[in-house]
Write a structure and sequence with these properties.
The chain is of the alpha/beta class. It has a single domain, classed as Rossmann fold, CATH 3.40.50. It is 25% helix and 29% strand. The longest helix is centred in the C-terminal third of the chain and has 18 residues. The protein starts with a strand and ends in an 11-residue tail after the last strand.
């Protein structure tokens, strides 16, 4: 199973639904993470906030592969995409373990396949370096075995078959 998280318009959202059954549009119609950590401790993998991201930890956690399509915001995810990723913190536990010789949170759902991130918009060389580092850290933290980072100037040329 693969999940696609994106910050594109409704028309592109409908196209993406033809290539994956789990497509999450970062449209901002949900609350930001409150930092309560209840998704870690009180009711694992379920957010206390009762909105469209209530079960996001489970959906992200159970997906083998994840594709993120985001506008470049100063070398990072767009705020709407970042909000979804923040609300997915319950895919790990508060316990720690060693992975790749480093201390990381224990994965609630085990290791995964591939993390693919497609970044669109103007991206400077410094921002590209930041993206490279961040995606590698995200790969390790979330237990993905492989990663792919793609930069495109415009989303107009992106075909859903390439995702």
């Amino acid at each position: 199973m693969r999940i696609i998280i994106h910050d594109l318009d409704e028309a592109f959202h409908e196209k993406l639904k033809t290539v994956s059954e789990d497509v999450m549009r970062a449209d901002g119609k949900y609350a930001p993470c409150q930092g309560c950590f209840n998704c870690w401790t009180k009711h694992p993998a379920t957010c206390s906030l009762k909105d469209s991201l209530h079960e996001m930890c489970r959906v992200v956690g159970q997906a083998e592969d994840m594709v993120i399509i985001t506008e470049n915001w100063y070398g990072g995810y767009s705020p709407a995409v970042k909000n979804i990723l923040d609300r997915s913190i319950g895919t790990s536990t508060p316990m720690s373990t060693y992975r790749s010789g480093e201390m990381h949170h224990t994965l609630r759902y085990g290791k995964k396949g591939k993390l693919k991130v497609i970044v669109y918009g103007d991206v400077s060389d410094n921002e590209k370096a930041t993206w490279e580092l961040m995606i590698e850290r995200n790969r390790i933290n979330h237990g993905y075995q492989d990663k792919e980072l793609v930069f495109v100037n415009s989303i107009d040329g992106l075909e859903v078959s390439e995702i």
